[in-house]
What does this fold into?
Amino acid sequence: MLIGHQPKDFLLAVSGLTVSFDGFKAVNDLSFYVEDNEIRVIIGPNGAGKTTVLDLICGKTKATSGSIQFRGQELTKLRENEIVQAGVGRKFQTPSVFEDLTVFENLEISFPRGRTVFGSLTFQRDATVKERVEEVAEMIFLKDRLHTYADQLSHGQKQWLEIGMLLIQDPDLLMLDEPVAGMSVSERAKTAELLNRIIKGRSVLVIEHDMKFVEDIAHKVTVLHQGQILSEGTMEHVKNDPKVIEVYLGH
Amino acid sequence: MIINSRFFNRTELIGFVALALLLFVILPLSLDIFRLNLVAKYLTYAFVGIGLVLCWGYGGILSLGQGVFFGLGGYCMAMYLKLEASSVENTKIQSTPGIPDFMDWNQLTQLPFFWKPFHSFPITLIAIMLVPGIFAFIIGAAMFKRRVGGVYFAIITQAIAAIMTILIVGQQGYTGGINGITDLRTLHGWDIRTDHAKFILYFVEVVLLFACIIAAQFIRLTKLGRILVAMREQEDRVRFSGYSVANFKIFAFCAAAIFAAIGGAMFTLEVGFMSPSFVGIVPSIEMVIYTAVGGRMSIFGAVWGSLLVNFAKTSLSESFPQLWLFGLGALFIAVVLAFPNGLSGIWQDYVQPHIDRLLASRKSKPGNGFPVTDGAPAE
It folds into this structure.
């Protein structure tokens, strides 16, 4: 295969991505690239299509046209669980954890082993699993709550638990949808610290409204507006872009 | 107390022992053979209930068509028994001897191809589980792969139950029609109509029931059991944890179908016939009610529910035949509104705490200084 003038290998290459719901183009001919170990933040006003972009990458929504290449693999043709197995993890906006299970069990389910029906019937809770679960639980500040049912956790703790569930999957690309929304100030600081620790060795795609938080973590910022890219670059560049100020930051 | 290396926790162990005592000792000793046979009939629904606990209680997949699988299991067994009862010798007055009587009445002159394997007892035993299992797999694959779930799935299973009844009734020559398959006599040469046979069959059934309870408990305690719970709450989260949700639903549905089929096969043996009246919508819904009353999250609850509701059904319909259906409906509404976890939920919320307190106070009396820590992690 001739590589020639082709850009270097991106971890994630989204090109010409379009999805339309009954004629309304929520995402319109969108292209962007994420490199290895990059932290990319997507910002934009409500209805800009931020969450839809994540939905498209993780397979929750099927694209109308365009392509999403992840490590050279075409994601638009894969099913959700295959996309996860390819190495993409997704955190939802509202914490989605299994409330009738304990923190330990929540993390254990996300442990990447025994994901088939037969595999889960013969799954053994061995030392490797326990160690990994405890290690992750420590990272997400829930080490002493391993045997608490998830419905008894606070909102912030549920968010951490979900982040922990992604962490234990060890994805190459981590997608977070408003990870600090609805958190208290102290929880927010702890989450930023948590995220800074877990992003090492992987790429992260974050949607966030909290500008302070964005500034803290972002390598590069993509501003979406009406399903299209309005501006892209460093936070400094984006902040001073007159188009961005007009539609978003100025308000 | 979730990280439990034991197969049954204390409450479950008590439930297991109590049920074993009741079914193996108390009932056989205290009931005459007619009543014991009735209990055996009630217990056939407990098999369905155990399946529903896994599929509905744990997996959140409500099937209103378990009668189909109960019936398939029952019909497989009935076909074998009928062929044995229709030996050339027994049927020499027919125009075609050697085929079941209803086929002869319907002018069939030879055994249909799908009846032929049921000459063999081992094949029949395999078919009892395999036929409903495969049928459930096909339904499950068609529905769950397309993400049909919840109420829509319940309605479709109900429609399948209706279609199945119509099919059986309509294909009289092949199935015995509305009368079903009757006049069953021997199982592998052993007369199943005698009191002694009924006594033995009762014990065979109870042993099978406990085997199913243990199998269900095993499934519940594996990671698969936890994934079922997880799926019921947050299907998407399971999917985005790398699992194929459809495959797990298919598994739960197939397991429930196989449990139901074992119950159906035992029903045929206990009662001595099989008919479409155990396949359709009404019996399928009744099976869900037994499970709901017992507690859809409890394997033992399902057994108790089947026993108690059927016992009530028999005693009430003996005295007030018209009122029974209203009673059953009222019971269902009451359970759903007031006690969503059924009898086992009532037990856990109101009775168990008292027992625990009683045990705790007795244990702490010796004064060795150790508080009773039932919930200590057994890691």
The interface with chain A takes residues 1-3, 219, 222-224, 226-227, 229-230, 232-234, 236-245, 247-248, 251, 377 of chain B (CB under 8 Å).
